[in-house]
Design goal:
Distance between the termini: 80 Å
CATH superfamily: Vaccinia Virus protein VP39
Structural class: alpha/beta
CATH class: Alpha Beta
CATH architecture: 3-Layer(aba) Sandwich
Number of strands: 9
Strand content: 15-25%
Radius of gyration: 22 Å
Strand order of the largest sheet: 5-4-3-6-7-9-8
Shape: globular
């Protein structure tokens, strides 16, 4: 007698053989290594984990689930991501994606003709990223990172896209130097970081008593919050720094503030800092000068 009891499967005539027809599993890695589907989805949509699950959710890590995440990530509150991450501005160039989450942004870069390399560390889900690319019939190189070192040659990439919204800490100065090293002269760094002076900060500063009758939703990101000044200092090797604020949901605001235009408020008190910086072209000249003198 066979049957399924929770995660335990019993077969009347023993387990199925290699020639038996079985349904392909939507997730390629063992079940023990799977992240929680709700956690992965909330991070892709940049919303708090406390957001309740939808009644009709797709089965996590299926094709339909990946497609729904890709559709929702760049709509409504995330419409700014298309422009901020510059998906269509670097065709036929190479991009290094760090902090990939479920790989939605990396897939988007690949759809626009970029050569994609994904760097993952212990907190990432390389199996999920790989499944996302397989689902989309796209290719990417997935490399494991250990420590601040980035295992690529100098001037390997045209773009580095860094999602630090869920990192355990801000990048170190050594990691920032590594990103500078692997970028080609004239290459661009695009980073996403939690904003310190966001709507939560200003609510506490301007409306300290609002907590008596209204509970503010949890922060959508878990990484330490930072400021534009700190980011410019951390990535001081780069040039042409541009920092802007984006991402804000109306439900995160006190009721009196909700009458104001959201697209204006997010630029003042948004939850995400978008950093854009370039590696100066003359950085290559500085490197070449000592070699000429030595010759």
């Amino acid at each position: 007698m066979g049957g399924t009891f929770g995660n335990l499967k019993l077969f009347a005539d023993g387990p199925p053989g290699p020639d038996d027809a079985t349904t392909p599993q939507p997730f390629a890695v063992p079940a023990a290594a799977r992240p929680d589907g709700h956690l992965a989805a909330t991070r892709e949509l940049i919303r708090p984990l406390s957001v309740r699950r939808a009644r009709r959710e797709c089965e996590p890590f299926t094709d339909e689930w990946f497609e729904e995440l890709e559709l929702k990530r760049y709509q409504r509150h995330g419409a700014w991501l298309e422009r901020a991450l510059e998906f269509g501005r670097h065709p036929d160039q190479s991009v290094l994606v760090l902090g990939p989450g479920a790989g939605t942004d990396a897939v988007r870069y690949a759809r626009h003709g970029m050569s994609v390399t994904v760097g993952t560390d212990a907190a990432d889900w390389p199996g999920v990223v790989r499944d996302n690319f397989n689902r989309a019939n796209l290719r990417a190189e997935i490399a494991e990172l250990s420590g601040p070192r980035v295992p690529f040659a100098d001037a390997s990439f045209d773009v580095v896209a860094l999602n630090a919204l869920y990192a355990p800490a801000l990048p170190t100065a050594e990691r920032a130097g590594e990103l500078f090293r692997v970028l080609r002269p004239g290459g661009k760094l695009i980073g996403l970081f939690p904003a310190f002076y966001d709507c939560a900060f200003w609510q506490g500063a301007l409306l300290p008593l609002v907590r008596l009758w209204w509970t503010r939703p949890a922060d959508p990101a878990t990484a330490p919050k930072t400021t534009g000044r700190e980011l410019r200092h951390l990535f001081a090797q780069f040039g042409e720094h541009r920092v802007s604020k984006r991402h804000l949901r109306r439900g995160e605001l006190p009721h009196l503030w909700r009458v104001l235009p959201l697209f204006v408020l997010e630029r003042w008190i948004g939850r995400v800092l978008v950093l854009k910086a370039k590696k100066p072209i003359f950085a290559a000249r500085r490197t070449a000068e000592p070699l000429r003198r030595a010759a």
